[in-house]
């Protein structure tokens, strides 16, 4: 079984580039160049230096002693929460802005829902001195005021998307319109392993630094490069893709992808894409997505804004279909309890997205000798008001 993208941009039957004709030149320019550029020694050097000195990599692989005792297994946490800006997203935005520069682009656009990808993009634009426009639904701008302020502080223009439901999907449409109108000087940074080929593969490769480090760190701590389990939460799927990447071909390493069940898989308020989704096309890629019987995209729901996405990247659809990864859906309440537990047991307040991954510890039985790596995708500072409301702190 092959889990890498093929020449046409597919993972099994998923992926591809289903794009409007007018976007073709931009995507084709990227497709023809991304592997060449990322293989250049000068690119590798600049990427690695920024990951080390700016992001703070390698992030620790921390043996969670108290959590391990509690669940009677060996639990390691990959500390992406310690990355600059508080999550793994910066690994990808650094990679893509270096590509944009080498393609001669001077202007960056992106769309954002909760604002996390917007902040990661605004950050690298400030770092490189490039003009940056972030599209964001008008509703999301109101809901995510602190992230809007961060983007402005970083010198970015936040443009409201005022059509449709005024959320992520509409912001994406606006960003695509912008790119069609500015093909020469503009580069579109996508924030997860979604979108038309080559984005899912490119983003997975940038995030793959996570599993590359896990292997080296486990070798040092456990004298093996291979854990028994890798667990990660899935919104679009980028932190999971990065944590899984170098283990995909080792079937002894079991992969667990955790989706948001929201108020319950059957409640009508959920983001459990792989369970509820059917094959369709979203953001230029053929993948599993939540849709009504007549093919309208269903508005997803999760207490964590970062998992609140109606689709999942094509790699993950393939991992689901081939059963290479096990997909588990976790409710809001389960995730919040896990966020509480990790905070009290390890002194780490996780992002609510990440908290979903920890709930797997209550769902599955692990052996005492198992090495279980949980990708701690981000820190919980941004979620404090949600924690405060939920636990009445
Ligand atoms: C954005 C985000 C996610 C979900 O995005 P993926 O592309 O699925 O990784 C998960 N955790 C955190 C902390 C995030 O900010």
Q: Oligomeric state of the chains?
A: single chain
Strand arrangement across the biggest beta sheet: 3-4-14-9-10-13
Attached small molecules: pyridoxal-5'-phosphate
The beta-strand count equals 14
Count of helices? 17
Low-confidence runs (pLDDT<50, min 5 residues)?
Answer: none
| Main structural class | alpha/beta
Q: Mean pLDDT, as a whole number? A: 96
Q: How much of the polypeptide forms β-strand, as a percent range? A: 15-25%
* N-C termini distance: 49 Å
Q: How would you sum up the global shape?
A: globular
Question: How are the secondary structure elements laid out?
Answer:
Layout: E1 10-11, E2 14-15, H1 24-39, H2 41-55, E3 61-63, H3 65-71, E4 74-78, H4 89-102, E5 107-112, H5 116-128, E6 131-137, H6 138-143, H7 145-153, E7 157-161, H8 168-181, E8 186-188, H9 199-207, H10 209-222, E9 229-233, H11 238-244, E10 254-262, H12 273-276, E11 278-282, E12 285-289, H13 314-321, E13 325-331, H14 332-346, H15 352-358, H16 360-363, E14 371-375, H17 384-391
Parallel strand pairs: 4-14, 5-6, 5-8, 6-7, 9-10, 9-14, 10-13
Antiparallel strand pairs: 1-2, 3-4, 11-12
The structure holds pyridoxal-5'-phosphate.
Summarize the structure in short:
With 393 residues, the protein is an alpha/beta fold. The chain has helices spanning 24-39, 41-55, 65-71, 89-102, 116-128, 138-143, 145-153, 168-181, 199-207, 209-222, 238-244, 273-276, 314-321, 332-346, 352-358, 360-363, 384-391; strands spanning 10-11, 14-15, 61-63, 74-78, 107-112, 131-137, 157-161, 186-188, 229-233, 254-262, 278-282, 285-289, 325-331, 371-375.
């Amino acid at each position: 079984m092959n889990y890498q993208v093929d020449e046409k941009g597919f993972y099994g039957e998923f992926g591809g580039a289903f794009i409007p004709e007018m976007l073709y030149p931009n995507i084709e320019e990227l497709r023809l160049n991304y592997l060449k550029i990322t293989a250049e020694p000068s690119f590798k050097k600049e990427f690695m230096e920024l990951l080390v000195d700016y992001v703070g990599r390698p992030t620790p692989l921390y043996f969670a002693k108290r959590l391990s005792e509690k669940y009677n297994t060996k639990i390691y946490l990959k500390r992406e929460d310690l990355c600059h800006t508080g999550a793994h997203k910066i690994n990808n935005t650094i990679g893509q802005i270096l590509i944009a520069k080498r393609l001669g682009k001077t202007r960056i656009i992106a769309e954002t829902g909760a604002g996390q990808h917007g902040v990661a993009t605004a950050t690298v634009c400030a770092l490189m001195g490039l003009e940056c426009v972030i599209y964001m639904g008008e509703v999301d701008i109101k809901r995510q005021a602190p992230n809007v302020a961060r983007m402005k502080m970083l010198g970015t223009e936040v443009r409201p998307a005022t059509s449709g439901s005024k959320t992520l999907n509409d912001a994406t449409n606006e960003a695509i319109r912008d790119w069609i109108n500015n093909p020469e000087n503009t580069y579109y940074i996508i924030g997860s392993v979604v979108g038309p080929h080559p984005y899912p593969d490119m983003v997975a490769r940038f995030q793959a630094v996570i599993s590359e480090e896990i292997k080296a760190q486990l070798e040092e701590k456990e004298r093996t490069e291979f854990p028994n389990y890798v667990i990660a939460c899935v919104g679009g799927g980028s932190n999971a893709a990065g944590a899984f990447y170098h283990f995909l071909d080792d079937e002894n390493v079991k992969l667990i992808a955790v989706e948001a069940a929201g108020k319950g898989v059957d409640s009508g308020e959920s983001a459990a894409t792989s369970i509820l989704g059917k094959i369709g096309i979203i953001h230029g890629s053929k993948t599993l997505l939540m849709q009504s019987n007549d093919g309208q995209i269903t508005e997803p729901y999760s207490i964590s804004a970062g998992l609140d996405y109606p689709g999942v990247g094509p790699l993950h659809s393939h991992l689901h279909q081939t059963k290479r990864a096990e997909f588990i859906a976790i409710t809001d309440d389960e995730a919040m309890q896990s966020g509480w537990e990790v905070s009290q047991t390890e002194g780490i307040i996780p992002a609510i997205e990440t908290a979903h991954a920890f709930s797997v510890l209550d769902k599955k039985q692990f052996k005492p000798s198992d090495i279980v790596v949980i990708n701690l995708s981000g820190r919980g500072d941004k979620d404090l008001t949600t924690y405060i409301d939920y636990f009445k702190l």
